[in-house]
């Protein structure tokens, strides 16, 4: 193609000269276009080189598996795949086919990129990193060329640094490796994926430089089956949200350089942060330190961590102040949530606040006794009643409801739907895709209406405690666990 363009350009230039046309402006313009093309062509290599060079041997020493908490099983599974880089002779002796690719699957912020960097340090390998979006362009063939450049550059860099192995890390792999045939406008996506498959097939364990490809995604369902077959991405490592012990270890890692008043408070914080990823916990520790600095406190106290949890979940405090009527209604609303939560799940209320944060005018933070992954119908019904508590309390106090319960109702409906789809409702075992929408709607509605009546009865029996808690909340704005127990008793 290049030869044809050069020939056509030369012929046109000769013709223009023969008819007396000044071609110097065209020559200058063409030279500028060539320079721009060469510059853009180099971008593919430069982008990969930049991250790889920034994470060279000097910086990779700072990242090890000890710096990653809450992922012990994932690290052990990944470690087996790394043995062919560390001990190729033993692998060959045992007749084991080395793994060519490892796929890290998990939610955002769980440490997939850190694990890839730690793997490079663990194996003393060259580390090259790229994002899936860097390979996709509107111009045909560019993505495939960048895939070739990435693998070639990894091998060349390993030779220059006298390394016998290289690890290539591709984040957001679902962009590059999506199922083929879904993009009908042009075939650039498919060509790029095809090139990646070819490069993985060409990874030879007997090469001078042994290459391992590590991919990361939170949408493994979008990947092309050809990527996931044995011989390419041989192993999928689940990098899940950390459990309670994992969160405690992550908090310990991120507070090593921070002055804490009492490190024992990390146990309480780990228990109160169910569902937090490693990125959330790092942000939590950082926000707690910022709050302590803002108060000019020499150490970080437990209350700084508690306030940081609210900030990470909901956002920063808002400057705008609701009207007095809104404050009173929000106080009643949050008191209804808290009172029902304490009645149905004793010891579950950690704090109640009417300080606006993000999109919320108030918030009741629960303290789960332990991580929980399975629920009975009775437990799910309690969650629905707690979510309904705010609207029910408003109706008891004012005789009507407000739009503040919109998010609560959505949570109630999702939980009721979970009851139906799990086969815990009167419909018995069902399949969500085959269940008529009318039946699903009626069943969810019946569940919520029945539980709403129970919530009304419970709060009417505790009306005095409800109004006393709401009044105290209006005055104090935030009520912690100890003060909460005093009021309701």
Please explain how this structure is put together.
With 489 residues, this protein is an alpha/beta fold. The protein has four domains: 1-50; 55-238, Rossmann fold (3-Layer(aba) Sandwich), CATH 3.40.50; 244-314, Orthogonal Bundle (Helicase, Ruva Protein, domain 3); 324-488, Up-down Bundle (Methane Monooxygenase Hydroxylase, Chain G, domain 1), CATH 1.20.58. The chain is built from 20 helices and eight strands. It has helices spanning 2-18, 24-54, 57-60, 72-86, 88-93, 112-122, 142-160, 173-176, 188-201, 225-228, 244-254, 265-271, 278-294, 302-314, 324-344, 377-398, 406-421, 437-461, 463-476, 481-488, and strands at 101-105, 126-131, 165-171, 210-217, 233-238, 349-353, 363-366, 478-480. Strands 2-3-4-1-5 form a five-stranded parallel beta sheet, sandwiched between helices. α7 links the parallel β2 and β3. α2 crosses α7, α15 (324-344) packs across α19 (463-476) and α17 packs across α18. The protein starts with a helix and ends with a helix. Residues 43-61 have low confidence and may be disordered.
Please summarize the sheet with the most strands.
Answer: 5 strands, parallel
Oligomeric state of the chains present here = single chain
Strand content: 5-15%
How many DSSP E strands?
Answer: 8
- Spatial sequence of strands, sheet with the most strands: 2-3-4-1-5
Q: Regarding CATH, which class of the largest domain? A: Alpha Beta
Q: What fraction, in percent, of the residue positions are helical?
A: 55-70%
**Structural classification:** alpha/beta
Could you say how many structural domains there are in total? 4
Q: What do the pLDDT scores average to?
A: 82
CATH H-level name of the largest domain... which superfamily? P-loop containing nucleotide triphosphate hydrolases
Please tally the helical runs, counting DSSP H or I stretches of 4 or more residues: 20
> What would you report as the Rg, rounded to the nearest angstrom?
30 Å
N→C terminal distance: 84 Å
Shape, per Cα inertia axes: elongated
């Amino acid at each position: 193609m290049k030869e044809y363009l050069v020939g056509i350009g030369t012929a046109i230039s000769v013709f223009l000269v023969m008819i007396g046309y000044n071609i110097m402006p065209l020559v200058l313009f063409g030279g500028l276009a060539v320079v721009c093309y060469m510059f853009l062509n180099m971008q593919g290599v430069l982008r990969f080189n930049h991250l790889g060079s920034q994470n060279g041997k000097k910086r990779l020493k700072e990242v090890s598996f000890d710096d990653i908490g809450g992922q012990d099983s994932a690290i052990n599974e990944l470690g087996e795949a790394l043995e062919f880089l560390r001990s190729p002779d033993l692998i060959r002796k045992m007749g084991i086919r080395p793994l060519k690719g490892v796929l890290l699957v998990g939610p955002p912020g769980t440490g997939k990129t850190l694990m890839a960097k730690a793997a490079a340090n663990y194996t003393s390998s060259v580390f090259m990193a790229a994002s899936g979006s860097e390979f996709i362009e509107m111009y045909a063939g560019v993505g495939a060329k960048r895939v070739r450049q990435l693998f070639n550059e990894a091998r060349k860099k390993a030779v220059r640094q006298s390394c016998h192995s290289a690890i290539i890390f591709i984040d957001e792999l679902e962009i590059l490796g999506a199922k083929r045939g879904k993009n009908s406008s042009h075939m650039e996506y498919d060509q790029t994926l095809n090139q990646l498959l070819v490069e993985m097939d060409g990874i030879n364990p007997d090469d001078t430089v042994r290459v391992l490809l590590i991919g990361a995604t939170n949408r493994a369902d979008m990947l092309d089956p050809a990527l996931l077959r044995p011989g390419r991405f041989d192993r999928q490592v689940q990098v899940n949200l950390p459990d309670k012990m994992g969160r405690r270890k992550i908090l310990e890692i991120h507070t090593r350089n921070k002055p804490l008043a009492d490190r024992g408070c990390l146990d309480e914080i780990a228990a109160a942060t169910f569902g937090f990823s490693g990125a959330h916990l790092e942000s939590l520790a950082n926000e707690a330190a910022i709050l302590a600095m803002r108060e000019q406190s020499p150490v970080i106290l437990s209350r700084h961590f508690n306030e940081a949890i609210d900030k990470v979940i909901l956002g920063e405090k808002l400057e705008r102040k609701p009207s007095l009527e809104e404050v009173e209604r929000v106080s009643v609303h949050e008191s209804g949530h808290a009172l029902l939560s304490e009645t149905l799940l004793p010891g579950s209320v950690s704090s109640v606040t009417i300080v606006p944060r993000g999109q919320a005018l108030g918030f009741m933070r629960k303290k789960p006794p332990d991580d929980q992954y399975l629920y009975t119908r009775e437990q799910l019904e309690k969650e629905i009643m707690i979510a309904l508590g705010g609207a029910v309390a408003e109706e008891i106090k004012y005789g009507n409801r407000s739009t503040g319960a919109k998010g609560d109702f959505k949570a109630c409906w999702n939980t009721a739907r979970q009851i139906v789809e799990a086969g815990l409702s009167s419909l018995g075992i069902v399949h969500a895709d085959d269940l008529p929408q009318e039946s699903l709607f009626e069943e969810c509605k019946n569940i919520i209406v029945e539980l709403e009546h129970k919530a009304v009865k419970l709060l009417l029996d505790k009306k005095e405690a409800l109004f006393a808690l709401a009044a105290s909340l209006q005055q104090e704005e935030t009520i912690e666990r100890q003060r909460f127990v005093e009021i309701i008793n």
